Protein 1
Amino acid sequence: MNAIVKIAGSERYARCIQTSKRVRWDVEADVIRGRHFDAAHKFLPDGLSLADAFTTLSDDEKRFVSQIQGRTYANVFGLVERFINAKVLELSHDHWFGDQVALEALVRFSDEELKHQALFRRIDAMAGDVLPDGYRFDIDPNAVAHAVLGKSTWAVLALTLDIELFTQLHYRQSIEPDAGLSELFKDVFLYHWKEESQHAILDELEWARHDAALTAEQRDRAVDEFIELVAAVDGILQVQAKADAGYFAATCGRAVGAAEARAIEAAFLEAYRWQYIHSGAQHPHFGKVLSGLITEDQGRRIQAALATLH
Ligand SMILES: [Fe+2]
Ligand SMILES: [Fe+2]
């Protein structure tokens, strides 16, 4: 790496530290502020919950779906942040006896992800206070983290950048402009997004740094591993779509026939694939960074894999 690239990189790590200090928030004092959820409000906006895909449901039932999906949204972030944080701590090793600014930026990143996991556990419990009993999120974050971290760093960083960019996109495009949402739910994702912005910059810096040390063969294998990780994410989404559709049918207060139950489960899965796979894959900056690292043939392999998830 030449000296100019090195200085530019170090400056970007330093700016992440400055912004991280400026936007830093506390779960209770800044985000929760003694508030509670109210079942009269939506949690996730229609643009993310894909309310229109639930064609058999009334408006009140669609609001309930947005609350179920909002609770799952918090739980999925809590889940992915387990492996993201472990990978960030692992990457920090490369800077222990090197760039101390980069090391500080990654330590703050890790500290923030631990705080976010605590926030999302709190949100899950608070949502449980106002929603019917019986909700399940049984996917073990540690088991997922072990499986994800078994893949190469390149593949994990690709997935991580994708996730950390779509948190920003979801907030700006869908959550912020929706006037019908719970103010507390909105604030959770406003504050989350403020710290995620720095994470996405650090992901990109670390991904480029790591990529520069790979051979073409290693990178080609990593592209396949990224595709395997996206398929694993889809497996998780299928499990949770089934669980959430079952919870809806059991608690919505009316009988749901077999055909309608299948349609509701399909709509949950469509929404989750949009939230966690396609919205990130279509993110312009993710596409730009990814295409800067891979060949056209590798890009076609990724697109072909994504196209099967509909
Ligand atoms: Fe986070
Ligand atoms: Fe993050």
Note: Residues 84, 113, 164, 196, 199 surround fe (ii) ion (ligand 2) (CB under 6 Å).
Protein 2
Amino acid sequence: MNKKQSSSRRKFLQQFSFSAAALAVPALATASENQPPSFAILKRDNGFSNLDNINLGLIGAGGMGVEDTKTALMVPGVKLVAVCDLYDGRLKEAKSRWGADLFTTKSYKELLNRKDIDAVIVATPDHWHQQISIDAMRAGKHVYCEKPMVHSVAEGPAVIKAQKETGKIFQVGSQGVSSLGNEKAKELLKDGAIGQLNYAEGFWARRDPVSVWQYPIPADASAQTVDWDTYVSNTNKRSFDAMRFFRWRNYTDYGTGMAGDLFVHLFSSLHFITDSYGPNKVYASGGLRYWNDGREVPDVLLGTFDYPKAAVHPAFNLSLRCNFVDGTSGTTYLKLVGSEGAMDITWDSVTLKRNQSMNSDDPFYIEKLKTAGQEISDRKKMQGPESITFEAEKGYKGGPYDHMNNFFTAIRKNGKVAEDAVFGYRAAAPALLCNDSYYQNSPMFWDPEKMLLLKK
Ligand SMILES: NC(=O)c1ccc[n+]([C@@H]2O[C@H](COP(=O)([O-])OP(=O)(O)OC[C@H]3O[C@@H](n4cnc5c(N)ncnc54)[C@H](O)[C@@H]3O)[C@@H](O)[C@H]2O)c1
């Protein structure tokens, strides 16, 4: 352990014993008299911005567009004025949800032409993120763009350029990075709570048809109710296909597979927590094991990633897995493992587990120590808590609210967002390279600092 690591470890141990004592009162409910607390509350002092009104437009009013807008409308002073979607049903739903006087259109350009709109949410399928985001920033709008920021690695630099040139606020929608859970994990890692990071892993398990992208197709889906020509205008042209429109995640022209849809969240959180720029080697394997419904993407995917040593972290390895045929279903996790402990991280909790002792009761081990002339004492030692869980305070509005609030606060104060275009690209690229690795059956090499694809 180098000097810097040992001093941050000391800092953590000091803070840990202090916070354990300071938290003893709220934790008494869960800690018996002689036991240290195993539970602590996460809380943030959140300075709030002034309340200038912000007029919002929504582009892509499906599942996430609606959720994002509901979250945005929880932020004081935000008003929805216009909605764009390519399907009539979604525009009708928008009017019934948010009022008959809402402006609706099938053309995002018409929405962007409106002078009264300050900011837009882009929640279309992935193949439209880049073009609409760039057009929006060039039309003078701030942009909250859903993840993954882009549909392919090649698309990223143009978004970064547009953000730089226009100076508009641009936030990518991996909400976890603004959550209390991710912030606490970042703080704990920095303070040496798990020692030296050497490994991280993440997992998504799903099983029910809707969760694995077999969405219901509306009864009135047709070339009359859907603007199909616009939908495919930036990709391979085909005749109308309701599956490709409503179940777009299953097709590579529009979606980005499990990696672009799900791994990207774990990259965002991991990069936020570790301050990492990303891996330099990406390898993915998997297969289509069960959902033979015409999908072009695998339903089991494994990714391994090498993170090179950087100024802010040691070299470490990452393993990500996603299984859509998981009979146990419903598991998602992100774990960081270090030389002295590990953290299980969610958006509203962190469970920290630490090694109690490096010693062992194993008679073989003890015999070896004796042979080496080391003194063996049977005197018991003081022990810290084996595990402590930090949990968000009751009533916490959650990562999605914090992330949206971060976006609007940045607009009002002209400040910084948690996930700008550079951050969003560094999270999207290794996810998208998983797809390239899977289809090309080969590892992909990436320069995370310069954000360049390297030759094999
Ligand atoms: N951050 C998260 O947790 C999270 C969760 C779910 C989805 N997402 C992201 O949100 C985006 C949307 O996903 P979804 O599940 O809401 O999909 P969805 O199919 O429910 O909604 C997409 C909507 O976009 C519309 N659309 C398609 N092309 C358009 C265009 N060119 N102009 C205007 N509207 C267009 C469709 O008609 C549809 O209503 C995706 O990028 C997805 O990755 C993020």
Note: The chain is about 35% helix and 20% strand.
Protein 3
Amino acid sequence: MGKYAFIDQALDDLRKQGLYNTIRTIESSVGAWVIVEGKRALNMCSNNYLGFANDERLCTAAKDAIDGYGVGPGAVRSIAGTMSLHIELEKKLAAFKGTEAALSVQSGLNTNLATIPLLMGRDDVIFTDELNHASIIDGCRLTKAKRVIFPHRDADALRVLLEENKDIAKKLIVTDGVFSMDGDLAPLPEIVAAAEEYDAMVMVDDAHGEGVLGSHGRGIVDHFGLHGRVDIEAGTMSKAFGVMGGYVAGSADIVDYLRQRARPFLFSSAATPPDVAACIAAIDILQETDAPVRKLWSNADYFKKKMTALGFDTGHSDTPITPVMLGEAETAWNFSKRLFEEGVFATAIAFPTVPQGKARIRVMLSAAHSVSDLDFALEKFAQVGRELGVI
Ligand SMILES: Cc1ncc(COP(=O)(O)O)c(C=O)c1O
């Protein structure tokens, strides 16, 4: 037995359980259509909500930034200085989100690793929704704080748990804004009301809300009119904004503290100049127009209505995330494989990402899709659905 036998064993187990993931290779930019392993396919699974991932304006901004600033930031910002581009992005993000300040970090995942362990310590308590994203879970794991998991979207249960822990002085409630596998929303107004009653901080991960919810895609806080009542908004530039990177938006004090002490900020280099410039271009577009957000929603409404009419179960999503519920993992894998053969790229999602027996294809609508793209997808979903006895 070699020293890597445990890895062979783990990989074997994954294959036996049907959980081994073979990732497809994309050979084009990410738009409504992509070239996947030599084949042109309709892209129904990326988080490119607004079609910005290959938008000409973002690409031009990125190229110009390379001409002006090169390709790399050189080192971490606190040691090697911060580029004016990063400062500009942070100012624009804060203005867009309606907060005092914002801090750019390298990814959405890093926002949670930066913020939660910095704010919470051994004597504190974190209340976290049972279906929160893995990066929130990891952020909580990096602290020594007590963790209290509340039932999914259950503000009444949260209130009971707050009462039970009311003697702990520092409290943080953390939740996804939009839950990525089902597209449902956190009951943020109820969570904020409970937090105010118990003097707890509230942090929302708006990864799937920004660019999607609120005026011009300002996110879930704007959607619910909760400006000034949510302490921390964490977000990503890798979904609706079409690029890469993360940010934390909140009060000037919180952002200043993060800039002084957050470990991903202090110990990992900054986002690259072309990434940052493309993010700035994305925000500029959204400040100017909400047309891409409206297009996204009209595409989502169109697709969901037609899928329901065809007899598909599309879950309980409140957003353009459209889970096509298929039950067993095998059905979902077969469905995805047949769709791909028919020219539609839509990945199956099964346990452990979603519960056993709740495998699905998660369709991600985009403003990049035309109505004829959606009709093509609907025709193929109907064809494969009938073939596999799903509808
Ligand atoms: C809720 C949530 N938070 C954070 C992330 C991570 O974002 P990023 O890809 O920018 O690291 C994701 C992406 O999967 C997410 O869905």
Note: The pocket of pyridoxal-5'-phosphate is lined by residues 107-109, 133, 135, 176, 180, 205, 207-208, 236, 238, 246 (CB under 6 Å).
Protein 4
Amino acid sequence: MRKTIHLYLIKPSQYDDDGYVVRHWRGVLPSNTLACLAGLTEDAVQQDNLSQLYNVKVHLLDETVDKIPVKKICRSQRWGLAKTIVCLAGVQTNQFPRACDLAHEFRKAGITVLIGGFHVSGYLALLPDVPADIQALLDAGVTVVKGEVEESWPQLLRDAIEGKLQPMYDYLNAKPDLYTKPIPAIRKKYLRKFVASNFGTLDCGRGCPFECTFCTIINVQGRKMRFRSAEHIADAIRRNYEQNGITFYFFTDDNFARNKNWETIFDALIALRTKENIPVEFMMQVDVLSWKIKNFVSKARQAGCINVFIGMESVDPGNLAAAGKKQNQVNEYRYLIQAYRDSDITSHVGYILGFPFDTVDSIRRDLKFLMEEVRPDHASFFILMPLPGSMDHIHMVKRGEWMHPDFNLYDSQHEVTKHPYLKDGSWRATYLEAWKTFYSLGNMKEILRRGSRVNYWNNFLRFLWYKNSIQTEERHPMMCGYFRLKGRKARRPGLAIVPRWEYYTTRAKEMYAYGRSLWRVMAEMEELWLQTRYPSAAEQRVVEELNKLRVKYDQLKIADLQAAYQRAKEHFPTLRVPSKVHLFWAKYSPLLVQNKVYTRADLHAFWSSVREKWDDQRWFRIPVHKVPLNLLRDVQLSLLFLFHMAREL
Ligand code: B12
Ligand code: SF4
């Protein structure tokens, strides 16, 4: 009988500021590292004939959306009937403390544990000495893997199964050629934990030729570009479409524009779209010079690109020079954004706060410049942090400068170093202000109005994700999902497990605050939709017919409305003329209020005044008779809004 091997590929999460493990009901971005290791494992099991000797069961767990069944895993190799191997995968610096806690717990139960990813790879790439926390892992019998494992995974897996693992493997200098290596495997079951189950990840290449000092990629994956074969990529996309219905990809390459195979990959995607009718679309990461590469932008659009993430980082040339970001020319930013906009590709810029010349005032000034002159469609803000594996980290170590000892905070939303001008919490305060300013109703409105109609919902849904993350979940959108879950006992070691009563009371309060905040976000998004949505041609025609009547809206009779619909129907035969009851409500719906701008401002004003009177205990001044009608209008409007949004998901 073949021995069962339980291979757990676990992507650890992070602790929140109260020490609870961060987990969400639904995630937004699936982990590419898990997909990569799953693909490599499937291949290794087949290629290495492991399947003839062992029954390898692969379990994919992403702690940002899955509860890790620690006890079950610890019990899984009791009685010697099975062997369990835990791989802590893609561990970034902010996930390292959580990964260590999990590793020690598994090791106590005698489980084989390996750890890899950017934290250990980056740390050990630039610093010769093994730091205490990594040494503690080694002492506990955890195997530490530095670098990429595309070449070595079959051997590593065999070593793990046969109990021959070495304490440390170093593949940093043996960077794999990716050309025909197994492609990340997408698992439908895993994707069910995410908002969009048609969403896959794939790295078409690795490496970046530039030299930014805050970046770890160049010291781990190198500056020499490596890439996958376009044919392999196209095969995987075809297979994922047929088997799992995947139509949207995040190409996680750090810089797709420097992938030497970009044109062949785009051609393969264009062929999939045009010859095989596979409606694939994708987003990718590029540098600020990408728009100058001949045909790059136009071909990207033809290949299905709808969004680019651009490492803009700052609009201050002094800051860019200090960060070694020589390629970024501020005076060309607006042309870059426009080039993508002209091809109907939305732009998303990464923007770092806390460079040497940043002050509260300069950040505000730069943000204004970014919003008014550069005019990207989206921006993500990050607090500068010295990640192990970056030149910034090495320089600070050498200079003996203070860095926060808790790696859990190295998530670009906490201050982990001291800044000469951003003191006493003003760094984080300015960071939060930047999010609020960029995603204000006014700026979102501008973006939707200047963007093309085809990208309307693409932009809108991203706004919703970002607003919800920042305002309701209070987390960086790239580290956030929908609806935070908290395990009472999933708390950082050293912190007390609070009694049930206290825990549930606090959770109830948190839920209430969450509900209120979500309500505010949804109301703002509804208003945004009302003010910017594209009415259908038939609807516009009805409004035109109404305008011809030259009667003030509130003087319109139901019969007038019905007649307007009848006349519009002559041009749009499929238009349904609503019943009188329906029109009675429609008359009060803000959707029909004016030709130009739709709004729920009157409803907002009504509820605010009710609230004010309630708070001042002037109950008798509340116009009770208007409450049911306005409530119905609000519900009707919300349903309409949710219906339109759901259609686009
Ligand atoms: C795509 C991406 C994202 C995406 C999606 C990430 C994902 N879930 O897949 C999003 C946008 C969500 C994201 C967010 C963040 N990211 Co990011 N992201 C990347 C990026 C560009 C690609 C990741 C990837 O797929 N790589 C390919 C995989 C296969 O590489 P890998 O993880 O290193 O795995 C290989 C090896 O390390 C090894 N390996 C890994 N684990 C294990 C385990 C075992 C046991 C073994 C044997 C081998 C092994 O095998 C793999 C195959 O060779 C990387 C840069 C990069 N080039 O990797 C940054 C990067 C990983 N991100 C980074 C950061 C900082 C973040 C954020 C904190 C930023 C922020 N505030 O938003 C968040 C954290 C989010 C989170 N909770 O994970 C840093 C991490 C550096 C660090 N030391 O922590 C990186 C390196 C970029 C950088 N600027 O330096 N990110
Ligand atoms: S351009 Fe991006 S990926 Fe390349 S070195 Fe700079 S930060 Fe890193």
Note: Residues 500-532 form the longest helix (33 residues).
